[in-house]
C-alpha cells in the first residue's frame, strides 16, 4: 500500500479502460478485432484479449496478436465459428493494476467486409462500325471463396476524367467486367472498383487505374443527338406557335362548349311575323314531346355565331321587308359546339361580367324558346329566354358599327365583346318578344342598366338599343301584340328580376304582362292600375285555343283599359313595352285587366279579347 | 427515425418484392397440374436462392428495426445466448464443416430448419400486432417472411424430390415453445422474447441462405460459381 501510494504520487495509475472498436472478417472464415488502449497510467501496460463462445463455458485467450498488427487479435480459421456469438474482452494490465474493457458481442456472420477486387485492367476497344468503348476487367479479392458459393460478391465501378471532381459510379452486379460507352476523347480516365458480399459491407475502393483516351476517337453519337435535339426544339417551337395562333379554335374543336337548353317547337321567326297561331299551335302540340307536326312550323334554332353571320343575315334581312317569309331553317338541334356562353345559368353572370371582361366567346348561338307562355306567366326571368337573343343581332344591325353586334361583322372577326352584346342581344330580343313573358323586360332593364353603367360601351349600347328599339318598333304594325317599345329608350334602368303581372291576353293567346313596378315613373292615367300589383296571375287552365285561363281575382274590378299605355319614363322599359302592348290591342276597353292588385285576372275578360 | 421511414419501408418491401417476383417470373414455370413437366434443377435452385436471400434480408431488417425501437439499453444481447430453439439441430458451423456434409444431408438439414420455423413465424405475426405501437415495418416483414418461408419449403421439397427422390425422411424439426413468453404480461420479459425470436430468425435464415448457395454452386455449377 505504501508503494502504491508512492507510485500514485508519481502520477502513475492502473491503466485506463481499453475499448474494442472494430472487428472484421474479410472472407467469413477468419476475423480480427482491434482495440484502442486507454490511459496507460504511466507504466508499461500489457493487453490481453480473452473470449468465450456462445454455448461454451471455457474462456480462451487470443490466439494471434501479431498478424493483424498492434493492438489486434487475429482469429484463424481454426478458431472461427460462424453463426456463433463471441464474447470478447480486453484486459489492460500494468504494475498498478488491471482494467477490463466492456465485453463485446461479435457474430462473425455480420462483420464480413472483404478486400477490394484485384487486378483491375482497362482497355479501350474500338470495333469497326461500332462505337468505341472502355472495357474493364477485375478479379475478386484473393481471400474470398466465390467458387464454392461460400460468399457471393457484387461489384461497383467508378470512373472520372482525371481533372473532374465527381465520380461516375456504376453497379456491375455479380459480373467481373464492365463496359463504359460515354467517353470524352483526349481525356485521361481514372477507374476504381469495389465489392460487397451478399450480406455484408462494401470493401474499400481498389487502387486507381488510369487510361488515356486518344484524341481521334470519334463519338458520333453526340452529333446525332445534337441534331435530334435541335430538330425537336424547332418542331416544338412550331407547335407552340401554331397552338398560340389557333389555340382557341382548336380548343373549341376539341372541347366544344356545352350547349344550353332550348325549347323545341318555338319559332321566333314566326313570332316576329305574327304567325302566332302557327307558333302557338306548334307550341301547344298535344302530344308531348312534340311530334313531327310541330316541327314543320319549327324554325331551326338560329345559331348566332360569328361565323354564321352570313347565314343569319340573309334570313333576317329578308325578314325585314317581307313578313311572310319563313326564315331559313337552320339545324334545329344543332346546339352543340356553341352556346356554352349562353347557357342559361351563365346568363345572369354574363350580365354582370359583360363589361368586366369582354371575352372572345362566341355569341350564344342557340335560340332557346322561352317557356310556353301559357305556363310561365308568372315566372321570374327565365334565362332560357336568352335563346331569343339570337334574333337580336339582326336589328341593330346593320347600321351598327359597334363591335357589339356579331352579325354585322365579318365572320373572321369574332366579336371581342360577344359577351357584352349577348346581353344586349338578350335584351333586345326580349324587347321584341311577344308579351309572352314580360320578364324579359325585367331582364332587359337589368342588362341594360348594367351595361349602361359601363362607361366604355354604355353609349354604344344605348345607341344600339335605340336602333334596336326603333327597328323593333318598325315592326309593330303586324297586328300581333308584341311588346315593342314605341319610344326610344335611351336609358334603361336596372330592375331586379321580378315577377310579372298579367296585363291582358290577346286573341292569339299571348299574354301581355306588366312588370311589377317598384318605382313610379311618370305614368299617365291608368298607369296606376298597373302599379300596385305585385301579385301573381294564377293559371287555372289552358283552353283549346292556347288560351290561358287565369283564376279570377274577386277583388280586382276595374280593369285597366287596354288603352292604358302607361307611358313611363324610360327607366322602365317594361312599362313602355307594356304600354305598347296595350296600345296594339285592338279590343275595346273592357273590364278586364289588372285590378287594383293586379293579382288575378278575370277569365271572362280574355274571352272578350278573343272576339 | 423509424417513424419517418415508416411510409418508405412498405414501399421498399413492395419494390423488393417486385424485384423478387420479376426474377422468379423470368424462370420457366410448370403449369399446375402438369405431370411430366420438370423444371430444371438449376431453375429450382436459382429460385430457392432468391427466396432465401430475400428472407434473410427481411429478417435482418426486422431485427434491426426491433433492436432500434424496443431493445435499446436493455442489454438483451447479453441474454440471447444459446437460446435458439433450433440449436439442437446440429448444423455446420463453418465452411469446412459445410463442405464436408453430403448434399443430401445438407438438404434435409435445410428442410428441418425451415419446418422448425413454421410455427414460430405464424405466432410471430399474430403476436407482433400486440406490440405497443408496433411499427408497420416489423409487422409487414413478419407477414412477408412467413409467406416466403412457406414457398421456400415447397421449393426445397421439390429439389429434394429431384436430387434424391424416393427418400422421404420423417418430418424432423425442432419444436418451438416460446409462445407463452411472447404473451407474458411483463413488458421486459415479453420484449426479450421477441428480441430472441428475431435474433434466432436472423441467424437461421442466414444459415439456410448460405447452405443453399453452397449447394447450388456445388450441384448446379460443379463448384465453379
Automatic annotation (TrEMBL), chain A:
<dbReference type="InterPro" id="IPR003961">
    <property type="entry name" value="FN3_dom"/>
</dbReference>
<keyword id="KW-0732">Signal</keyword>
<keyword id="KW-0862">Zinc</keyword>
<feature type="transmembrane region" description="Helical">
    <location>
        <begin position="223"/>
        <end position="245"/>
    </location>
</feature>
<dbReference type="GO" id="GO:0008284">
    <property type="term" value="P:positive regulation of cell population proliferation"/>
</dbReference>
<dbReference type="GO" id="GO:0017046">
    <property type="term" value="F:peptide hormone binding"/>
</dbReference>
<keyword id="KW-1133">Transmembrane helix</keyword>
<keyword id="KW-0675">Receptor</keyword>
<feature type="compositionally biased region" description="Basic and acidic residues">
    <location>
        <begin position="316"/>
        <end position="328"/>
    </location>
</feature>
<feature type="region of interest" description="Disordered">
    <location>
        <begin position="513"/>
        <end position="536"/>
    </location>
</feature>
<dbReference type="InterPro" id="IPR036116">
    <property type="entry name" value="FN3_sf"/>
</dbReference>
<dbReference type="GO" id="GO:0019955">
    <property type="term" value="F:cytokine binding"/>
</dbReference>
<comment type="subunit">
    <text>Interacts with SMARCA1. Interacts with NEK3 and VAV2 and this interaction is prolactin-dependent.</text>
</comment>
<feature type="compositionally biased region" description="Polar residues">
    <location>
        <begin position="520"/>
        <end position="531"/>
    </location>
</feature>
<dbReference type="Pfam" id="PF09067">
    <property type="entry name" value="EpoR_lig-bind"/>
</dbReference>
<keyword id="KW-1015">Disulfide bond</keyword>
<keyword id="KW-0677">Repeat</keyword>
<dbReference type="InterPro" id="IPR015152">
    <property type="entry name" value="Growth/epo_recpt_lig-bind"/>
</dbReference>
<feature type="region of interest" description="Disordered">
    <location>
        <begin position="562"/>
        <end position="595"/>
    </location>
</feature>
<feature type="domain" description="Fibronectin type-III">
    <location>
        <begin position="14"/>
        <end position="115"/>
    </location>
</feature>
<feature type="region of interest" description="Disordered">
    <location>
        <begin position="314"/>
        <end position="419"/>
    </location>
</feature>
<comment type="similarity">
    <text>Belongs to the type I cytokine receptor family. Type 1 subfamily.</text>
</comment>
TrEMBL record, chain B:
<dbReference type="GO" id="GO:0007565">
    <property type="term" value="P:female pregnancy"/>
</dbReference>
<keyword id="KW-0862">Zinc</keyword>
<dbReference type="GO" id="GO:0046872">
    <property type="term" value="F:metal ion binding"/>
</dbReference>
<comment type="subunit">
    <text>Interacts with PRLR.</text>
</comment>
<dbReference type="InterPro" id="IPR001400">
    <property type="entry name" value="Somatotropin/Prolactin"/>
</dbReference>
<keyword id="KW-0964">Secreted</keyword>
<dbReference type="GO" id="GO:0007595">
    <property type="term" value="P:lactation"/>
</dbReference>
<keyword id="KW-1015">Disulfide bond</keyword>
<feature type="binding site">
    <location>
        <position position="209"/>
    </location>
    <ligand>
        <name>Zn(2+)</name>
    </ligand>
</feature>
<dbReference type="GO" id="GO:0005615">
    <property type="term" value="C:extracellular space"/>
</dbReference>
<dbReference type="Pfam" id="PF00103">
    <property type="entry name" value="Hormone_1"/>
</dbReference>
<keyword id="KW-0732">Signal</keyword>
<keyword id="KW-0421">Lactation</keyword>
<dbReference type="GO" id="GO:0008284">
    <property type="term" value="P:positive regulation of cell population proliferation"/>
</dbReference>
<keyword id="KW-0372">Hormone</keyword>
<protein>
    <recommendedName>
        <fullName>Prolactin</fullName>
    </recommendedName>
</protein>
<dbReference type="GO" id="GO:1903489">
    <property type="term" value="P:positive regulation of lactation"/>
</dbReference>
<dbReference type="GO" id="GO:0046427">
    <property type="term" value="P:positive regulation of receptor signaling pathway via JAK-STAT"/>
</dbReference>
<feature type="signal peptide">
    <location>
        <begin position="1"/>
        <end position="26"/>
    </location>
</feature>
<dbReference type="GO" id="GO:0010628">
    <property type="term" value="P:positive regulation of gene expression"/>
</dbReference>
<dbReference type="InterPro" id="IPR018116">
    <property type="entry name" value="Somatotropin_CS"/>
</dbReference>
<dbReference type="GO" id="GO:0005148">
    <property type="term" value="F:prolactin receptor binding"/>
</dbReference>
Amino acid at each position: 500500500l505504501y508503494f502504491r501510494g508512492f507510485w500514485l504520487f508519481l502520477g502513475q495509475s492502473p491503466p485506463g479502460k481499453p475499448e474494442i472498436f472494430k472487428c472484421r472478417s474479410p472472407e467469413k472464415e477468419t476475423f480480427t478485432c482491434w482495440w484502442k488502449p486507454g490511459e496507460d497510467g504511466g507504466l508499461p501496460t500489457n493487453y490481453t484479449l480473452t473470449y468465450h463462445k456462445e454455448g461454451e463455458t471455457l474462456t480462451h485467450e487470443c490466439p494471434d496478436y501479431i498478424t493483424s498488427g498492434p493492438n489486434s487479435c487475429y482469429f484463424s480459421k481454426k478458431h472461427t465459428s460462424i453463426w456463433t456469438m463471441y464474447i470478447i474482452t480486453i484486459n489492460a494490465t500494468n504494475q498498478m493494476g488491471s482494467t477490463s474493457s466492456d465485453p463485446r458481442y461479435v457474430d462473425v456472420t455480420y462483420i464480413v467486409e472483404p478486400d477490394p477486387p484485384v487486378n483491375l485492367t482497362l482497355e479501350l476497344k474500338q470495333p469497326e462500325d461500332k462505337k468505341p468503348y472502355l472495357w474493364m476487367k477485375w478479379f475478386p479479392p484473393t481471400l474470398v471463396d466465390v467458387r464454392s458459393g461460400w460468399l457471393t460478391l457484387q461489384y461497383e465501378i467508378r470512373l472520372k476524367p482525371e481533372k473532374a471532381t465527381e465520380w461516375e459510379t456504376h453497379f456491375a452486379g455479380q459480373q467481373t467486367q464492365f463496359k463504359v460507352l460515354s467517353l470524352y476523347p483526349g481525356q485521361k480516365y481514372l477507374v476504381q472498383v469495389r465489392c460487397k458480399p451478399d450480406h455484408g459491407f462494401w470493401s474499400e475502393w481498389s487502387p486507381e487505374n488510369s487510361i488515356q483516351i486518344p484524341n481521334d476517337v470519334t463519338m458520333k453519337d453526340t452529333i446525332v443527338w445534337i441534331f435530334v435535339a435541335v430538330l425537336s426544339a424547332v418542331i416544338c417551337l412550331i407547335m407552340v406557335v401554331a397552338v398560340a395562333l389557333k389555340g382557341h379554335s382548336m380548343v373549341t374543336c376539341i372541347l366544344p362548349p356545352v350547349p344550353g337548353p332550348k325549347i323545341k317547337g318555338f319559332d321566333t321567326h314566326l313570332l316576329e311575323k305574327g304567325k302566332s297561331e302557327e307558333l302557338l299551335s306548334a307550341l301547344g302540340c298535344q302530344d308531348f314531346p312534340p311530334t313531327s307536326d310541330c316541327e314543320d312550323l319549327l324554325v331551326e334554332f338560329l345559331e348566332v355565331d360569328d361565323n354564321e353571320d352570313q347565314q343569319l343575315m340573309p334570313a333576317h334581312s329578308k325578314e325585314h321587308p317581307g313578313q311572310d317569309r319563313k326564315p331559313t331553317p337552320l339545324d334545329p338541334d344543332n346546339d352543340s359546339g356553341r352556346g356554352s356562353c349562353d347557357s342559361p345559368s351563365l346568363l345572369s353572370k354574363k350580365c354582370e361580367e359583360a363589361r368586366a371582361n369582354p371575352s372572345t366567346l362566341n355569341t350564344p348561338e342557340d335560340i332557346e324558346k322561352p317557356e310556353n307562355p301559357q305556363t310561365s306567366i308568372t315566372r321570374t326571368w327565365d334565362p332560357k329566354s336568352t335563346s331569343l337573343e339570337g334574333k337580336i343581332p339582326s336589328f341593330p344591325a346593320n347600321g351598327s358599327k359597334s363591335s357589339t353586334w356579331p352579325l354585322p361583322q365579318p365572320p373572321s372577326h369574332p366579336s371581342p365583346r360577344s359577351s357584352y352584346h349577348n346581353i344586349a342581344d338578350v335584351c333586345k330580343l326580349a324587347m321584341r318578344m311577344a308579351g309572352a313573358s314580360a320578364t324579359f323586360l325585367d331582364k332587359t332593364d337589368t342588362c341594360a342598366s348594367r351595361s349602361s353603367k359601363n362607361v366604355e360601351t354604355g353609349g354604344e349600347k344605348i345607341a344600339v338599343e335605340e336602333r334596336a328599339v326603333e327597328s323593333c318598333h318598325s315592326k309593330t304594325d303586324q297586328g300581333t301584340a308584341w311588346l315593342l317599345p314605341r319610344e326610344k329608350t335611351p336609358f334603361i334602368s336596372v330592375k331586379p328580376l321580378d315577377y310579372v303581372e298579367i296585363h291582358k291576353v290577346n286573341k292569339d293567346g299571348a299574354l301581355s304582362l306588366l312588370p311589377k313596378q317598384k318605382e313610379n315613373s311618370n305614368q299617365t292615367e291608368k298607369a296606376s292600375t298597373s302599379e300596385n300589383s305585385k301579385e301573381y296571375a294564377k293559371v287555372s287552365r289552358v283552353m283549346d285555343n292556347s288560351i290561358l285561363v287565369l283564376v279570377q281575382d274577386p277583388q280586382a274590378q276595374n280593369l285597366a283599359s287596354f288603352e292604358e299605355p302607361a307611358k313611363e319614363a324610360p327607366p322602365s322599359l317594361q312599362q313602355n313595352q307594356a304600354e305598347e302592348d296595350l296600345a296594339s290591342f285592338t279590343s275595346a276597353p273592357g273590364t278586364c285587366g289588372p285590378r287594383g292588385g293586379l293579382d288575378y285576372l278575370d277569365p271572362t275578360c280574355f274571352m272578350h279579347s278573343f272576339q | 427515425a423509424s417513424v419517418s421511414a415508416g411510409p418508405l419501408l412498405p414501399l421498399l418491401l413492395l419494390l423488393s418484392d417486385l424485384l423478387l417476383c420479376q426474377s422468379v417470373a423470368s424462370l420457366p414455370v410448370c403449369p399446375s397440374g402438369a405431370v411430366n413437366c420438370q423444371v430444371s434443377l438449376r431453375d429450382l435452385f436459382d429460385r430457392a436462392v432468391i427466396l432465401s436471400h430475400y428472407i434473410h434480408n427481411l429478417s435482418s431488417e426486422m431485427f434491426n428495426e426491433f433492436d432500434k425501437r424496443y431493445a435499446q439499453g436493455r442489454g438483451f444481447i447479453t441474454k440471447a445466448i444459446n437460446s435458439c430453439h433450433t440449436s439442437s439441430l446440429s448444423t455446420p458451423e463453418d465452411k469446412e464443416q459445410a463442405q464436408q456434409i453430403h448434399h443430401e444431408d445438407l438438404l434435409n438439414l435445410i428442410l428441418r430448419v425451415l419446418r422448425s420455423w413454421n410455427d414460430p413465424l405464424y405466432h410471430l405475426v399474430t403476436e407482433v400486432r400486440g406490440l405497443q405501437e408496433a411499427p408497420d415495418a416489423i409487422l409487414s416483414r413478419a407477414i412477408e417472411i412467413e409467406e416466403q418461408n412457406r414457398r421456400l419449403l415447397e421449393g426445397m421439397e421439390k429439389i429434394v424430390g429431384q436430387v434424391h427422390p424416393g427418400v422421404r425422411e420423417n418430418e424432423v424439426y425442432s419444436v418451438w415453445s416460446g409462445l407463452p413468453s411472447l404473451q407474458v404480461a411483463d413488458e421486459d420479459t415479453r420484449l426479450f422474447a421477441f428480441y430472441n425470436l428475431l435474433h434466432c430468425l436472423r441467424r437461421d435464415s442466414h444459415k439456410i441462405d448460405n447452405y443453399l448457395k453452397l449447394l447450388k454452386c456445388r450441384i448446379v455449377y460443379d463448384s465453379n460459381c
